[in-house]
Amino acid sequence: MLVKTYSAAVNGLDVTPVTIEVSLNKGIVYHLTGLGDEAVREGRDRIAAAMLHNGFHFPKADITVNMAPADLKKEGSSFDLPLAVAILAADGQTDPQQLDQYMMVGELSLDGHLQPAKGVLPIAIKARAEHCKALIVPRANVREAAIVNHLDVYGIDTMVDVLDFLSGRKAFEPTVIDTRREFYEQQYKFDLDFADVRGQENVKRALEVAAAGGHNIIMIGPPGSGKSMMAKRLPSILPPLTLGESLETTQIHSVAGLLPRQSALISQRPFRSPHHTISEIALVGGGASPMPGEISQAHNGVLFCDELPEFNKHTLEVLRQPLEDRVITISRAKYTVTFPCSFMFVASMNPCPCGYYGDPTHHCVCSPGQIQKYLNKISGPLMDRIDLHCEIAALPFKDLSKAAPGEPSAKIRERVIAARALQTERFKDYKDVHCNAQMTERMIHRFAEPDDAGLELLRVAMERLSLSARAYSRILKVARTIADLAGSERVLSEHLAEAIGYRNLDRGDWAERGL
After folding, report:
1. Per-residue pLDDT reduced to its tens digit, 10-32
2. What Cα–Cα distance (Å) separates residue 262 from each residue in 177, 259, 267, 354?
3. Given CA atoms 437, 197, 201, 500 in this order, what sign does their dihedral have?
4. Measuring CA to CA, which of 115, 135, 153, 437 is 20 to 30 A from 307?
Protein backbone atom coordinates (compact mmCIF):
# COMPACT_ATOMS: atom_id res chain seq x y z
CA MET A 1 0.00 0.00 0.00
CA LEU A 2 1.22 3.49 -0.84
CA VAL A 3 0.48 6.41 1.51
CA LYS A 4 1.54 10.05 1.27
CA THR A 5 1.86 12.64 4.02
CA TYR A 6 3.14 16.20 3.80
CA SER A 7 5.72 18.22 5.67
CA ALA A 8 8.31 20.89 4.84
CA ALA A 9 12.08 21.37 4.80
CA VAL A 10 13.69 24.63 5.95
CA ASN A 11 16.86 25.80 4.20
CA GLY A 12 17.93 29.13 5.61
CA LEU A 13 14.66 31.10 5.55
CA ASP A 14 13.43 29.28 2.45
CA VAL A 15 10.85 26.53 2.92
CA THR A 16 10.19 23.70 0.47
CA PRO A 17 7.13 21.44 0.76
CA VAL A 18 8.13 17.78 1.24
CA THR A 19 5.99 14.82 0.23
CA ILE A 20 6.67 11.70 2.32
CA GLU A 21 5.76 8.54 0.40
CA VAL A 22 5.66 5.18 2.19
CA SER A 23 5.27 1.86 0.36
CA LEU A 24 5.03 -1.54 2.12
CA ASN A 25 5.87 -4.85 0.45
CA LYS A 26 6.95 -8.30 1.55
CA GLY A 27 10.34 -8.27 3.24
CA ILE A 28 12.10 -6.95 6.33
CA VAL A 29 14.24 -4.08 5.04
CA TYR A 30 13.77 -0.35 5.75
CA HIS A 31 14.78 1.89 2.84
CA LEU A 32 14.99 5.67 3.19
CA THR A 33 15.54 7.78 0.06
CA GLY A 34 15.48 11.52 -0.48
CA LEU A 35 18.71 12.82 1.12
CA GLY A 36 17.62 12.61 4.74
CA ASP A 37 20.39 13.45 7.21
CA GLU A 38 21.40 11.44 10.29
CA ALA A 39 18.58 12.90 12.40
CA VAL A 40 16.05 11.80 9.77
CA ARG A 41 17.54 8.30 9.57
CA GLU A 42 17.57 7.94 13.36
CA GLY A 43 13.88 8.80 13.31
CA ARG A 44 13.13 5.15 12.48
CA ASP A 45 14.17 4.09 15.99
CA ARG A 46 12.24 6.90 17.69
CA ILE A 47 9.15 6.05 15.64
CA ALA A 48 9.40 2.32 16.43
CA ALA A 49 9.70 3.02 20.18
CA ALA A 50 6.78 5.48 20.11
CA MET A 51 4.59 2.97 18.27
CA LEU A 52 5.40 0.19 20.74
CA HIS A 53 4.73 2.45 23.74
CA ASN A 54 1.28 3.38 22.39
CA GLY A 55 0.00 -0.04 21.41
CA PHE A 56 1.09 -0.11 17.78
CA HIS A 57 3.87 -2.12 16.16
CA PHE A 58 6.49 -1.22 13.61
CA PRO A 59 5.60 -3.17 10.44
CA LYS A 60 7.64 -6.28 9.67
CA ALA A 61 7.76 -5.56 5.99
CA ASP A 62 9.91 -4.12 3.23
CA ILE A 63 9.34 -0.42 3.90
CA THR A 64 10.41 2.09 1.27
CA VAL A 65 10.27 5.75 2.27
CA ASN A 66 10.81 8.50 -0.27
CA MET A 67 11.04 12.15 0.71
CA ALA A 68 10.36 14.25 -2.36
CA PRO A 69 11.88 16.29 -3.86
CA ALA A 70 14.60 13.64 -3.66
CA ASP A 71 17.44 16.00 -4.61
CA LEU A 72 16.79 18.36 -1.67
CA LYS A 73 18.66 17.66 1.56
CA LYS A 74 16.32 17.15 4.53
CA GLU A 75 17.66 17.91 7.98
CA GLY A 76 16.36 17.61 11.52
CA SER A 77 13.92 15.50 13.47
CA SER A 78 10.72 17.35 12.55
CA PHE A 79 9.84 14.69 9.94
CA ASP A 80 9.18 12.05 12.66
CA LEU A 81 5.45 12.76 12.94
CA PRO A 82 4.44 12.70 9.26
CA LEU A 83 6.67 9.66 8.69
CA ALA A 84 5.08 7.74 11.60
CA VAL A 85 1.56 8.59 10.40
CA ALA A 86 2.40 7.44 6.87
CA ILE A 87 3.90 4.11 8.06
CA LEU A 88 0.91 3.28 10.29
CA ALA A 89 -1.54 4.21 7.55
CA ALA A 90 0.33 2.14 4.96
CA ASP A 91 0.24 -0.86 7.34
CA GLY A 92 -3.47 -0.47 8.00
CA GLN A 93 -3.05 0.18 11.74
CA THR A 94 -4.89 3.48 11.42
CA ASP A 95 -7.25 4.98 8.88
CA PRO A 96 -6.55 8.70 8.65
CA GLN A 97 -8.77 10.73 6.36
CA GLN A 98 -7.79 13.52 4.00
CA LEU A 99 -4.05 13.24 4.62
CA ASP A 100 -3.46 15.31 1.50
CA GLN A 101 -5.00 18.37 3.18
CA TYR A 102 -2.67 18.53 6.18
CA MET A 103 0.96 19.51 6.67
CA MET A 104 2.67 18.11 9.78
CA VAL A 105 5.90 18.72 11.67
CA GLY A 106 7.13 17.38 14.98
CA GLU A 107 9.79 15.27 16.65
CA LEU A 108 8.65 12.15 18.48
CA SER A 109 9.89 11.23 21.93
CA LEU A 110 10.10 7.54 22.78
CA ASP A 111 6.72 7.63 24.54
CA GLY A 112 5.01 9.28 21.56
CA HIS A 113 4.87 12.86 22.81
CA LEU A 114 5.60 15.62 20.29
CA GLN A 115 8.72 17.66 20.91
CA PRO A 116 9.07 21.25 19.57
CA ALA A 117 10.62 21.84 16.16
CA LYS A 118 12.64 24.67 14.65
CA GLY A 119 11.40 26.89 11.84
CA VAL A 120 7.69 26.37 12.45
CA LEU A 121 6.75 29.97 11.58
CA PRO A 122 8.19 29.96 8.03
CA ILE A 123 6.67 26.49 7.57
CA ALA A 124 3.26 27.89 8.53
CA ILE A 125 3.67 30.70 6.01
CA LYS A 126 4.51 28.15 3.32
CA ALA A 127 1.54 25.95 4.33
CA ARG A 128 -0.80 28.88 3.77
CA ALA A 129 0.84 29.64 0.42
CA GLU A 130 0.34 25.98 -0.59
CA HIS A 131 -3.37 26.23 0.35
CA CYS A 132 -3.15 23.49 2.96
CA LYS A 133 -6.30 22.98 4.99
CA ALA A 134 -4.39 22.99 8.26
CA LEU A 135 -1.00 22.63 9.92
CA ILE A 136 -0.38 20.17 12.76
CA VAL A 137 2.47 21.10 15.12
CA PRO A 138 3.63 20.25 18.66
CA ARG A 139 1.70 22.22 21.24
CA ALA A 140 4.88 24.08 22.25
CA ASN A 141 5.02 25.61 18.74
CA VAL A 142 1.35 26.37 18.26
CA ARG A 143 1.36 30.05 19.22
CA GLU A 144 4.34 30.67 16.97
CA ALA A 145 2.54 29.15 13.97
CA ALA A 146 -0.93 30.53 14.78
CA ILE A 147 0.07 34.13 14.06
CA VAL A 148 -0.29 33.24 10.35
CA ASN A 149 -3.76 34.34 9.30
CA HIS A 150 -6.12 32.26 7.15
CA LEU A 151 -4.55 28.95 8.23
CA ASP A 152 -5.93 26.54 10.83
CA VAL A 153 -3.14 25.52 13.20
CA TYR A 154 -3.57 22.63 15.63
CA GLY A 155 -1.21 22.21 18.57
CA ILE A 156 -1.30 18.54 19.65
CA ASP A 157 0.59 16.76 22.43
CA THR A 158 0.99 13.15 21.28
CA MET A 159 1.17 10.96 18.20
CA VAL A 160 -1.99 9.09 19.32
CA ASP A 161 -3.93 12.37 19.51
CA VAL A 162 -2.79 13.22 15.98
CA LEU A 163 -4.01 9.83 14.72
CA ASP A 164 -7.35 10.24 16.51
CA PHE A 165 -7.75 13.72 15.06
CA LEU A 166 -6.94 12.60 11.52
CA SER A 167 -9.30 9.62 11.82
CA GLY A 168 -12.14 11.78 13.12
CA ARG A 169 -12.28 10.03 16.52
CA LYS A 170 -11.33 13.16 18.44
CA ALA A 171 -11.95 16.84 17.72
CA PHE A 172 -9.50 19.66 18.37
CA GLU A 173 -10.02 23.38 17.99
CA PRO A 174 -7.50 25.39 15.99
CA THR A 175 -5.50 27.92 17.98
CA VAL A 176 -6.46 31.52 17.27
CA ILE A 177 -4.07 34.36 18.09
CA ASP A 178 -4.97 38.06 18.10
CA THR A 179 -1.75 38.99 16.33
CA ARG A 180 -2.02 42.73 16.72
CA ARG A 181 -2.87 42.56 20.43
CA GLU A 182 0.04 40.18 21.04
CA PHE A 183 2.30 42.52 19.11
CA TYR A 184 1.37 45.83 20.65
CA GLU A 185 1.06 44.68 24.29
CA GLN A 186 4.81 44.15 24.77
CA GLN A 187 6.26 46.90 22.59
CA TYR A 188 7.14 49.39 25.31
CA LYS A 189 7.86 47.09 28.26
CA PHE A 190 11.58 47.55 28.91
CA ASP A 191 13.49 46.38 31.95
CA LEU A 192 16.27 48.93 31.39
CA ASP A 193 15.82 52.69 31.09
CA PHE A 194 18.10 55.66 30.46
CA ALA A 195 16.65 57.27 33.58
CA ASP A 196 19.04 55.00 35.49
CA VAL A 197 22.07 56.63 33.81
CA ARG A 198 23.42 59.63 35.69
CA GLY A 199 25.59 62.10 33.83
CA GLN A 200 27.32 61.15 30.55
CA GLU A 201 25.08 63.54 28.61
CA ASN A 202 27.43 63.66 25.60
CA VAL A 203 27.31 59.89 25.24
CA LYS A 204 23.54 59.76 25.60
CA ARG A 205 23.32 62.43 22.90
CA ALA A 206 25.49 60.34 20.60
CA LEU A 207 23.31 57.28 21.22
CA GLU A 208 20.21 59.35 20.49
CA VAL A 209 21.69 60.45 17.17
CA ALA A 210 22.64 56.86 16.37
CA ALA A 211 19.11 55.64 17.17
CA ALA A 212 17.48 58.44 15.18
CA GLY A 213 19.38 57.60 11.99
CA GLY A 214 20.11 53.89 12.42
CA HIS A 215 23.86 54.63 12.61
CA ASN A 216 26.65 52.40 13.88
CA ILE A 217 28.50 53.69 16.95
CA ILE A 218 31.59 52.86 19.00
CA MET A 219 32.26 54.05 22.54
CA ILE A 220 35.80 54.22 23.88
CA GLY A 221 36.62 54.79 27.51
CA PRO A 222 38.05 53.27 30.71
CA PRO A 223 36.47 50.36 32.59
CA GLY A 224 33.47 51.31 34.69
CA SER A 225 32.58 54.40 32.67
CA GLY A 226 29.16 53.02 31.70
CA LYS A 227 29.70 51.84 28.12
CA SER A 228 27.90 48.51 28.48
CA MET A 229 25.24 50.01 30.73
CA MET A 230 24.22 52.55 28.11
CA ALA A 231 24.51 50.15 25.17
CA LYS A 232 22.06 47.73 26.82
CA ARG A 233 19.53 50.56 27.12
CA LEU A 234 19.72 51.49 23.44
CA PRO A 235 16.71 49.31 22.40
CA SER A 236 14.53 51.32 24.78
CA ILE A 237 14.95 54.47 22.64
CA LEU A 238 14.70 52.85 19.22
CA PRO A 239 11.49 53.20 17.20
CA PRO A 240 9.13 50.26 17.78
CA LEU A 241 9.14 47.40 15.32
CA THR A 242 6.53 47.47 12.59
CA LEU A 243 4.38 44.36 12.24
CA GLY A 244 6.26 43.41 9.07
CA GLU A 245 9.65 43.80 10.77
CA SER A 246 8.41 41.77 13.72
CA LEU A 247 7.29 38.91 11.47
CA GLU A 248 10.63 38.92 9.62
CA THR A 249 12.60 38.95 12.87
CA THR A 250 10.45 36.21 14.39
CA GLN A 251 11.08 33.96 11.38
CA ILE A 252 14.84 34.22 11.90
CA HIS A 253 14.56 33.37 15.60
CA SER A 254 12.19 30.53 14.77
CA VAL A 255 14.70 28.96 12.36
CA ALA A 256 17.47 29.41 14.94
CA GLY A 257 15.34 27.78 17.65
CA LEU A 258 15.57 30.88 19.84
CA LEU A 259 11.89 31.72 20.26
CA PRO A 260 10.74 31.36 23.87
CA ARG A 261 8.26 28.53 24.23
CA GLN A 262 4.60 29.56 23.95
CA SER A 263 5.62 32.90 22.41
CA ALA A 264 3.99 34.34 19.32
CA LEU A 265 5.76 37.42 17.94
CA ILE A 266 8.95 39.22 18.83
CA SER A 267 7.62 42.68 19.59
CA GLN A 268 10.84 44.43 20.69
CA ARG A 269 13.98 45.00 18.69
CA PRO A 270 16.48 42.22 19.42
CA PHE A 271 19.68 42.96 21.31
CA ARG A 272 22.51 40.49 20.72
CA SER A 273 25.78 40.65 22.65
CA PRO A 274 28.12 37.81 21.60
CA HIS A 275 31.18 36.94 23.68
CA HIS A 276 34.53 38.00 22.23
CA THR A 277 35.56 34.34 21.77
CA ILE A 278 32.83 33.82 19.15
CA SER A 279 33.85 32.11 15.89
CA GLU A 280 33.32 33.49 12.41
CA ILE A 281 30.59 30.94 11.63
CA ALA A 282 28.72 31.66 14.87
CA LEU A 283 28.87 35.38 14.08
CA VAL A 284 27.73 35.37 10.43
CA GLY A 285 25.97 31.99 10.20
CA GLY A 286 26.50 28.75 8.35
CA GLY A 287 27.75 25.44 9.67
CA ALA A 288 26.96 21.90 8.54
CA SER A 289 23.27 22.87 8.65
CA PRO A 290 22.85 26.49 7.55
CA MET A 291 21.75 28.48 10.59
CA PRO A 292 21.51 32.25 11.09
CA GLY A 293 24.42 33.73 13.02
CA GLU A 294 24.45 36.53 15.58
CA ILE A 295 24.30 39.25 12.91
CA SER A 296 21.05 37.80 11.53
CA GLN A 297 19.63 37.20 15.00
CA ALA A 298 20.20 40.95 15.52
CA HIS A 299 18.23 41.78 12.34
CA ASN A 300 16.10 44.92 12.88
CA GLY A 301 17.84 45.39 16.22
CA VAL A 302 21.25 45.88 17.82
CA LEU A 303 24.48 43.87 17.66
CA PHE A 304 26.67 44.90 20.61
CA CYS A 305 30.32 43.89 20.66
CA ASP A 306 31.79 44.68 24.07
CA GLU A 307 35.59 44.97 24.30
CA LEU A 308 35.90 45.06 20.51
CA PRO A 309 39.72 44.60 20.27
CA GLU A 310 39.42 41.33 22.21
CA PHE A 311 37.57 39.75 19.30
CA ASN A 312 39.61 37.77 16.80
CA LYS A 313 40.68 40.17 14.05
CA HIS A 314 39.61 37.82 11.25
CA THR A 315 36.21 37.44 12.93
CA LEU A 316 35.76 41.22 12.97
CA GLU A 317 36.71 41.52 9.31
CA VAL A 318 33.79 39.33 8.22
CA LEU A 319 31.50 42.08 9.49
CA ARG A 320 32.60 44.51 6.78
CA GLN A 321 30.41 43.21 3.95
CA PRO A 322 27.24 42.66 6.07
CA LEU A 323 27.53 46.17 7.49
CA GLU A 324 27.40 47.56 3.95
CA ASP A 325 24.96 45.20 2.23
CA ARG A 326 22.68 44.35 5.18
CA VAL A 327 22.40 40.76 3.94
CA ILE A 328 24.80 37.84 4.27
CA THR A 329 25.09 35.15 1.63
CA ILE A 330 26.74 31.96 2.85
CA SER A 331 28.05 29.68 0.11
CA ARG A 332 29.29 26.18 0.83
CA ALA A 333 29.84 23.12 -1.35
CA LYS A 334 26.38 21.72 -0.52
CA TYR A 335 24.27 24.84 -0.13
CA THR A 336 23.92 28.59 -0.62
CA VAL A 337 21.65 30.55 1.71
CA THR A 338 20.99 34.23 2.25
CA PHE A 339 20.02 35.72 5.60
CA PRO A 340 18.98 39.35 6.23
CA CYS A 341 21.17 41.23 8.71
CA SER A 342 20.10 44.86 8.87
CA PHE A 343 21.29 45.81 12.34
CA MET A 344 22.76 48.69 14.27
CA PHE A 345 26.35 47.88 15.14
CA VAL A 346 27.31 49.12 18.60
CA ALA A 347 30.78 48.51 19.99
CA SER A 348 32.79 49.49 23.04
CA MET A 349 36.47 49.35 23.83
CA ASN A 350 39.12 50.50 26.24
CA PRO A 351 41.73 53.00 24.99
CA CYS A 352 44.57 50.56 25.78
CA PRO A 353 45.12 47.04 27.18
CA CYS A 354 45.02 48.17 30.81
CA GLY A 355 42.12 50.49 30.05
CA TYR A 356 43.41 53.70 31.61
CA TYR A 357 45.26 55.56 28.86
CA GLY A 358 44.42 59.25 29.30
CA ASP A 359 42.47 58.66 32.51
CA PRO A 360 43.21 61.48 35.02
CA THR A 361 42.74 59.25 38.10
CA HIS A 362 44.57 56.06 37.06
CA HIS A 363 48.08 55.52 35.79
CA CYS A 364 48.38 53.72 32.45
CA VAL A 365 51.01 50.94 32.53
CA CYS A 366 50.97 50.20 28.79
CA SER A 367 53.88 51.00 26.50
CA PRO A 368 53.25 52.90 23.23
CA GLY A 369 53.90 49.68 21.31
CA GLN A 370 51.33 47.77 23.33
CA ILE A 371 48.76 50.51 22.79
CA GLN A 372 49.41 50.60 19.05
CA LYS A 373 49.16 46.80 18.77
CA TYR A 374 45.93 46.85 20.74
CA LEU A 375 44.31 49.50 18.54
CA ASN A 376 45.55 47.90 15.33
CA LYS A 377 43.26 44.94 16.01
CA ILE A 378 40.50 47.13 14.58
CA SER A 379 41.20 47.78 10.92
CA GLY A 380 40.70 51.14 9.24
CA PRO A 381 38.07 49.76 6.82
CA LEU A 382 36.00 48.44 9.73
CA MET A 383 36.32 51.72 11.62
CA ASP A 384 35.21 53.57 8.48
CA ARG A 385 31.93 51.66 8.62
CA ILE A 386 31.18 52.99 12.09
CA ASP A 387 29.41 56.33 11.80
CA LEU A 388 29.88 57.74 15.30
CA HIS A 389 33.01 57.49 17.45
CA CYS A 390 32.29 58.60 21.00
CA GLU A 391 34.85 59.07 23.78
CA ILE A 392 33.56 58.52 27.29
CA ALA A 393 35.19 59.41 30.61
CA ALA A 394 34.55 57.84 34.00
CA LEU A 395 32.21 59.96 36.12
CA PRO A 396 33.86 61.18 39.37
CA PHE A 397 32.15 60.11 42.59
CA LYS A 398 31.15 63.65 43.55
CA ASP A 399 29.38 64.10 40.22
CA LEU A 400 27.89 60.62 40.34
CA SER A 401 26.45 61.07 43.82
CA LYS A 402 24.99 64.51 43.10
CA ALA A 403 23.77 63.95 39.56
CA ALA A 404 20.03 63.94 39.04
CA PRO A 405 18.34 60.94 37.44
CA GLY A 406 18.74 60.90 33.69
CA GLU A 407 16.09 61.69 31.09
CA PRO A 408 13.77 58.68 30.75
CA SER A 409 13.93 56.56 27.64
CA ALA A 410 10.35 57.40 26.73
CA LYS A 411 11.17 61.09 26.16
CA ILE A 412 14.27 60.31 24.13
CA ARG A 413 12.30 57.77 22.11
CA GLU A 414 9.70 60.43 21.22
CA ARG A 415 12.40 62.57 19.57
CA VAL A 416 13.85 59.54 17.81
CA ILE A 417 10.44 58.50 16.45
CA ALA A 418 9.80 62.06 15.23
CA ALA A 419 13.14 62.07 13.38
CA ARG A 420 12.44 58.63 11.87
CA ALA A 421 9.02 59.86 10.70
CA LEU A 422 10.76 62.57 8.67
CA GLN A 423 13.03 59.96 7.14
CA THR A 424 10.14 57.64 6.33
CA GLU A 425 8.45 60.45 4.41
CA ARG A 426 11.73 61.42 2.72
CA PHE A 427 12.47 57.91 1.49
CA LYS A 428 8.92 56.79 0.67
CA ASP A 429 9.78 56.47 -3.03
CA TYR A 430 12.94 54.43 -2.41
CA LYS A 431 12.86 50.67 -1.97
CA ASP A 432 14.63 49.17 1.07
CA VAL A 433 15.75 52.57 2.41
CA HIS A 434 14.15 53.48 5.73
CA CYS A 435 16.66 55.65 7.60
CA ASN A 436 19.57 58.00 6.95
CA ALA A 437 22.22 55.35 7.55
CA GLN A 438 20.95 53.46 4.49
CA MET A 439 21.26 56.37 2.05
CA THR A 440 23.17 55.81 -1.18
CA GLU A 441 25.68 58.33 -2.55
CA ARG A 442 23.09 59.76 -4.92
CA MET A 443 20.63 60.18 -2.06
CA ILE A 444 23.30 61.87 0.07
CA HIS A 445 23.84 64.49 -2.65
CA ARG A 446 20.10 65.04 -2.88
CA PHE A 447 19.13 65.16 0.79
CA ALA A 448 22.30 65.96 2.77
CA GLU A 449 24.25 68.39 0.61
CA PRO A 450 25.57 71.20 2.86
CA ASP A 451 25.86 74.87 1.98
CA ASP A 452 29.17 76.55 1.04
CA ALA A 453 30.14 77.24 4.65
CA GLY A 454 29.44 73.63 5.55
CA LEU A 455 31.50 72.37 2.60
CA GLU A 456 34.48 74.45 3.68
CA LEU A 457 34.18 73.15 7.25
CA LEU A 458 34.06 69.62 5.91
CA ARG A 459 37.09 70.18 3.68
CA VAL A 460 39.19 71.36 6.62
CA ALA A 461 38.10 68.39 8.72
CA MET A 462 38.91 65.93 5.94
CA GLU A 463 42.43 67.30 5.60
CA ARG A 464 43.21 67.57 9.31
CA LEU A 465 41.79 64.20 10.31
CA SER A 466 42.95 62.34 7.18
CA LEU A 467 39.42 61.06 6.66
CA SER A 468 38.53 58.60 3.91
CA ALA A 469 35.87 59.06 1.24
CA ARG A 470 33.64 56.65 3.16
CA ALA A 471 34.04 58.78 6.30
CA TYR A 472 33.01 61.83 4.24
CA SER A 473 29.74 60.13 3.31
CA ARG A 474 29.10 59.01 6.85
CA ILE A 475 29.62 62.51 8.23
CA LEU A 476 26.96 63.79 5.84
CA LYS A 477 24.56 61.00 6.86
CA VAL A 478 25.03 61.77 10.55
CA ALA A 479 24.65 65.50 9.88
CA ARG A 480 21.38 64.79 8.10
CA THR A 481 20.17 62.90 11.19
CA ILE A 482 21.21 65.74 13.52
CA ALA A 483 19.28 68.14 11.29
CA ASP A 484 16.23 65.85 11.49
CA LEU A 485 16.42 65.86 15.29
CA ALA A 486 16.52 69.64 15.15
CA GLY A 487 13.60 69.74 12.69
CA SER A 488 15.73 71.46 10.02
CA GLU A 489 15.11 70.90 6.31
CA ARG A 490 18.71 71.83 5.42
CA VAL A 491 22.00 70.48 6.74
CA LEU A 492 23.63 73.50 8.38
CA SER A 493 27.17 74.16 9.59
CA GLU A 494 26.31 73.45 13.22
CA HIS A 495 24.93 70.04 12.24
CA LEU A 496 28.11 69.26 10.33
CA ALA A 497 30.28 70.45 13.20
CA GLU A 498 28.59 68.01 15.61
CA ALA A 499 28.83 65.20 13.06
CA ILE A 500 32.56 65.85 12.54
CA GLY A 501 33.01 65.72 16.31
CA TYR A 502 31.83 62.13 16.21
CA ARG A 503 34.80 61.15 13.98
CA ASN A 504 37.52 62.01 16.50
CA LEU A 505 38.71 58.43 16.77
CA ASP A 506 39.72 58.11 13.12
CA ARG A 507 43.25 56.89 12.45
CA GLY A 508 44.60 60.31 11.62
CA ASP A 509 43.37 61.74 14.90
CA TRP A 510 44.75 58.81 16.91
CA ALA A 511 48.16 59.39 15.35
CA GLU A 512 48.06 63.06 16.30
CA ARG A 513 47.40 62.12 19.93
CA GLY A 514 50.27 59.65 20.02
CA LEU A 515 48.09 56.56 19.93
Report:
1. 998 999 999 999 999 998 899 99
2. 12, 8, 14, 45
3. negative
4. 437
